[in-house]
Specification:
Subcellular location (chain A): Membrane
Radius of gyration of chain B: 22 Å
Protein name (chain A): Cytochrome c biogenesis protein
Helix content of chain B: 40-55%
Oligomer: heterodimer
CATH class of the largest domain in chain B: Alpha Beta
Number of helices of chain A: 11
Keywords (chain A): Cytochrome c-type biogenesis, Membrane, Transmembrane, Transmembrane helix
Distance between the termini of chain A: 58 Å
Strand content of chain A: 25-35%
Number of helices of chain B: 5
Shape of chain B: elongated
Helix content of chain A: 25-40%
Number of domains of chain A: 5
Largest interface: A-B, 50 and 44 residues
Number of domains of chain B: 2
Main location (chain A): membrane
CATH architecture of the largest domain in chain B: 3-Layer(aba) Sandwich
Number of strands of chain B: 7
Radius of gyration of chain A: 40 Å
Order of helices and strands of chain B: HEEEHEHEHEEH
Shape of chain A: rod-shaped
Strand order of the largest sheet of chain B: 5-4-3-6-7
Strand order of the largest sheet of chain A: 3-23-22-5-4
Domain ResB-like (chain A): 58-501
């Protein structure tokens, strides 16, 4: 048994060298003009090990494939940001998509694009793109910048395109080359013709574009570049936009919703199927206020910036933010009217405002009511009445009603009136109510879009640069016997390059006639 | 040759360090995503002006320079807040003598609800009603209760997001006595 002199593996006796190594020896690895990438040399420190890992295209591909699979996974079910506002994610995924939805939520795939591991993948991808580019760009740049015109014969003989020529007038051949827009340089009696070297930088330009896109994704984590807040604003109320340093306020002047008519035979079936009224359009008349040096709680220092209307698909731009209409809540109660009948049988109404109720009410029939307690959103907790929020979604009042002699204490809500003495002497009942709406606005600022756009443009430039041009080189070397050796190399589309070179030789032989 | 190797090592170290920093920053940002900006001890307490429910007078934080202030965010429908109120009521008169003002800012919409609550718990310190959650936003409060201990110079001595450990109240209050 003998050893192959190249790979040191044992080989069959019949061969001089194993076929793979022979192939390698015949054709040089021309990617970096035969130079070895620095990271592929013997590793030394932990830094070098990490560097080598990221400089490997194979590892880069693995990272890319995993990233793509993860990205695809996030599109199977809607992300949490896109489920209907106000729903509880856990219930939404379980009820809409069953066990799969439950698991999807459990593994946090509903927030996949902002998960730490997805960000890590993007980070690794960025590291791979950056490091493998650095690792390849500089040796290639150096090799091409400093390339000699005279090359060793063995270098030329290892090229794929080789022609032995008998050239009497090299100047004419050079002219053929310059006609084909080759840049020809001369050193002694040797020539180097080269064109479209810039095509070699295509992949690197392309990677710079990708890095811009990843940088934009990174910048989205900073409030200066990206902000997204959601506001519920009741009719005629002002809300501060969160995280604006108390500089932006929005007032809901009026929320309007238009629903499809349930009596219209065209829609009747569909509305019945849906089981609820279906909105046709909804808009909010808003006033936008801007302030500087606002003292929290003070309403007097707000300056009106803009009065406008925001509707679905018709966002409003103001103060560097974009305001979208993106939800609503209907029918919070703004007031309730109760009717009380006195001893003489005369009825009179009390209207109680739910936002700022008065404590005492004088009725037209001589009765007097005192509001003892108020539960904006009442619920029974055992035998105790509690309020679960401050919003008048289900208001209840404790009223003491008197005609001067008899005082009656009642617990009064829209759906029931309970007399604490059990007699309900004044026959109190709810007779009317008024409602107001709540608009849901989404206020966004995204300053990363120009960075994404720039990245995309650079990406495309790199792609075009690398795909539509090829770097072509021809070496013309005068050998000792006076004949010439023509060797050629291109980084892609070998056959069209060889055709071009052969045609130039033909033309030369024909004496420049076509 | 040796200096070239050294330079290459330094360049690699630099690039990898930058990448690691970017990744760590992203991770840290992600951990805090969705949370409102929280105030920290040492920061200046945001100024606010609200109406005192009982007296109808303006209550402005910046006018209380020279006094320690305890600011508590609460609501009548918040259970842990209800437990803190009697503790505050017990401490308030003692500390008022030492120039520490208590102010409880309610998230409730209706003054009546707050007044009934005051009667029920027999509270004597100022109760304020927040104006469209503005002060809550300024203090980064997204869950009730929250308590802030403000020194006489207007800086925060302590910020407590969530229920207060009531046995520590006196210790925290002593820190803001001018």
């Amino acid at each position: 048994m003998r050893q192959c002199p190249v790979c040191k593996k044992e080989k069959q006796q019949s061969e001089e060298c194993c076929s793979q190594c022979e192939e390698q020896q015949r054709n040089w690895d021309m990617r970096y003009d035969g130079a070895i990438r620095k990271s592929q040399q013997q590793k030394k420190t932990i830094i070098d090990t990490i560097w080598r890992f990221f400089s490997s295209v194979r590892n880069g591909m693995y990272i890319l494939i995993v990233t793509l699979l993860a990205t695809a996974l996030g599109t199977i079910l809607p992300q949490r940001a896109y489920i209907p506002p106000g729903t509880i994610p856990e219930e939404f995924y379980a009820s809409q998509y069953g066990l799969f939805g439950r698991l999807y939520h459990y593994f946090r795939f509903d927030m996949l694009y902002s998960s730490w591991w997805y960000m890590t993948l993007l980070g690794l991808l960025g590291a791979s793109i950056l490091i493998s580019s650095i690792d390849r760009f500089f040796p290639l740049y150096r090799a091409l910048k400093k390339q000699p015109i005279k090359r060793h014969v063995s270098f030329l003989r290892h090229q794929k395109y080789i022609r032995e020529l008998d050239v009497q007038a090299p100047a004419l051949l050079v002219k053929e080359m310059t006609d084909k827009r080759y840049r020809v340089r001369q050193d002694g009696e040797d020539f180097l013709a080269e064109k479209n070297r810039f095509a070699r930088w295509g992949p690197y330009v392309n990677h710079i574009g990708l890095l811009f896109i990843l940088t934009a994704a990174f910048l989205r984590l900073f409030p200066f570049f990206y902000q997204d807040s959601f506001l519920w604003i009741r009719d005629e109320e002002i809300a501060v936009v969160p995280n604006t340093n108390q500089s932006l306020f929005i007032k809901n002047e009026r929320f309007l919703v238009d629903t499809y008519n349930a009596d219209d035979p065209k829609f009747r079936e569909a509305i019945k199927l849906e089981g609820r009224t279906i909105p046709k359009s909804f808009t909010t008349d808003i006033s936008i206020f801007q302030t500087e040096k606002h003292v929290a709680g003070d309403m007097a220092d707000l300056d009106l910036l803009l009065q406008t209307q925001v509707g679905v698909n018709h966002p409003v731009k103001a103060a560097g933010y974009t305001i979208y209409q993106s939800g609503y809540q209907l029918n919070e109660l703004s007031s309730l009217t109760f009717r009380a009948i006195n001893e003489a049988g005369q009825a009179a109404d009390i209207t109680i405002d739910t936002k700022n109720p008065d404590t005492e009410y004088q009725l037209e029939n001589g009765l007097r009511a005192v509001l003892v307690d108020y539960y904006p959103d009442y619920q029974l907790d055992g035998d105790k009445v509690i309020t679960v929020s401050k919003f008048p979604r289900n208001p209840a009042f404790v009223l003491e009603i008197t005609d001067g002699e008899h005082t009656e204490s009642v617990f009064a809500a829209l759906d029931e009136v309970v007399s604490e003495t059990g007699s309900n002497r004044y026959n109190i009942s709810a007779v009317d109510f008024e409602t107001h709406h709540v608009t849901g606005l989404s206020v966004k600022r995204d300053r990363t879009l120009p960075v994404f756009l720039l990245g995309g443009i650079i990406f495309m430039i790199g792609l075009i640069q690398g795909l539509y041009w090829q770097h072509r080189r021809l070496w013309l070397h005068k050998q000792q016997d006076g004949t010439y050796l023509l060797a050629g190399h291109t980084n892609k589309h070998t056959s069209s390059f060889e055709k071009e070179a052969d045609r130039m030789l033909d033309n030369y032989r024909k004496g420049g006639e076509y | 040759m040796n200096s070239l190797k050294k330079r290459r090592f330094l360049i690699r170290l630099f690039v990898l360090t930058v990448l690691a920093c970017v990744l760590l920053t992203a991770g840290w940002k992600l951990l805090n995503e969705g949370k409102t900006h929280k105030l920290e001890a040492g920061e200046k307490a945001p100024d606010f002006v609200l109406e005192d429910i009982q007296s109808g007078e303006e209550f402005k934080l910046s006018e209380l320079k020279g006094k320690g202030v305890l600011v508590n965010f609460w609501a009548t429908y918040c259970e842990p807040c209800k437990q803190e109120m009697p503790v505050f009521e017990e401490a308030a008169p003692t500390y008022e003598k030492q120039n520490v003002i208590f102010a409880a800012i309610s998230a409730d919409q209706s003054s009546l609800v707050i007044n009934r609550f005051r009667d029920h718990y027999d509270l004597s310190f100022p109760l304020l009603k927040d104006n469209g959650n503005q002060v809550m936003e300024a203090y980064g409060v997204d869950a009730l209760p929250a308590t802030f201990f403000i020194r006489a110079d207007g800086t925060l001595s302590r910020t407590v997001y969530g229920p207060l450990q009531t046995e520590k109240l006196e210790k925290y209050l002593d820190e803001i006595v001018p």
